[in-house]
Amino acid sequence: MCNIKSTILLGAGAAIEIGGKKTEVITNGIIQPKRYKNYSTKDIYGKFPYFTVVSKVYDRLKEKYPNEPNFEQIFHVLEMLESYNRVWSNERVNSRMFPPFAPFVVPETNIVSHLEWGNLSSLISQCQVDIMKMINEYDAEYKIKKDSVYKWYKDFWNKFSGFDLFNLNYDTTIEESLPCYCDGFVDSDDSRFQKFNPRVLCDEKSKYKICHMHGCILYCRQSYKDINHEIYEYHYSDMYKWKDYSSVEKMLQNSSGSNSSCQSGETLQIGSIITGLRKTDKVTVFPYNYYHYYLNTAILNNKSLLVVGYSFGDFYINDLIERVNVLYGKNKRIVVVTYWSHKDSFAEKDWDSENLNENELLFLKRMMHDDSFQYRWLDETIRNEDAYISKDGDVMLFVYGFESAVRKHGEQIVKFLES
């Protein structure tokens, strides 16, 4: 097998067929009433009240927002409310934590109870732990079933002679699938966790490299006995890689501390997982900053790109992966694996009204050099779970999900990418 490396980008859809949680499942999981308690205050009866803001934010978004709201949008609203509350409540703050736009807007106080305003950071942390628990459920199940039910998934990754893989999910299924890999983490002075070294990521000759762009269920801050250990080398917000999820969960449940702020003065929830709509502000600590640097490096050095289950919702990533046209033109090799729900006939389906992902369609058109490409024109071969191949032969598209593509065309996909 040749030594050509592929750049691989995994979105949430890549894990659905191995038990991954759909966006709506995660959203429904965090909006349940009486799910989160406000442990920072007590009501008039001396009990910890429940937060109501999550379901209220969801209901308001559902009423006003053009599409069905998801957990990323809910997190964004919660973070913005927490950021601006300091100004609205006339707390004494410095300019670094004072959003300049805050004096020009006022809150709708009926959305958030006065008992909840000052403790939104705690609520956000509880929600994030809940999401990590959901991820850990299928992550743990995969470890048990990777050599049986999910063997197709494990075997596919081992078919490659090498890759630079960028995972937008929080699981460790790729790591569990490979005999060896490099993610830039090395032993620290504490046996419970590893620290990140960007030189190892960039210099290591490992054929498999894995980068969690938006966090992982094994990431958390350090817990040295001396909190100032490595204070001159590492930042307080830098992520360390722990050996097991249960340790991370205990750390997060017992953690406290102030959040960082971005240049606009809004607070940032930077941690084990990166959520919300301000990801570009949050990926400024180890390992996220160098993982994004390495994505640039991979695109520059690898002419082959595999995109699986990605909704093209992160604009800054879209811009990076589109640059393969500038770098390689028609010599590139691109495979996109997605899932388009459909009825009996492609011809009868009104794609634009229900199933069109505008960003996905734009990416495909640009990569195919074909403005005429439309969903409704996909021919009979797609019905048979085959590939749609661009006119120039440099782009392959699979629309029946990851498992179908791997089971029916796994060898073909790898051979195409490494040709």
How is the secondary structure organized here?
Blueprint: E1 6-10, H1 23-30, H2 53-64, H3 71-88, H4 120-145, H5 151-158, E2 163-167, H6 173-177, E3 185-187, E4 193-196, H7 198-203, E5 208-212, E6 219-220, E7 240-242, H8 245-253, E8 260-261, E9 267-268, H9 279-282, H10 288-301, E10 304-308, H11 315-321, H12 324-328, E11 333-337, H13 351-354, H14 358-368, H15 380-383, E12 388-389, E13 395-398, H16 402-417
Parallel strand pairs: 1-2, 1-10, 2-5, 10-11, 11-13
Antiparallel strand pairs: 3-4, 4-7, 6-7, 8-9, 12-13
Helix pairs in contact: 4-8
Describe this structure in words.
The protein is α/β, with parallel strands linked by helices and about 425 residues long. It is built from 16 helices and 13 strands. The chain has a 7-stranded mixed β-sheet, with helices on both faces. Strands 3-4-7-6 form a 4-stranded antiparallel β-sheet. It has a two-stranded antiparallel sheet with strand order 8-9. The N and C termini lie close together (about 10 Å).
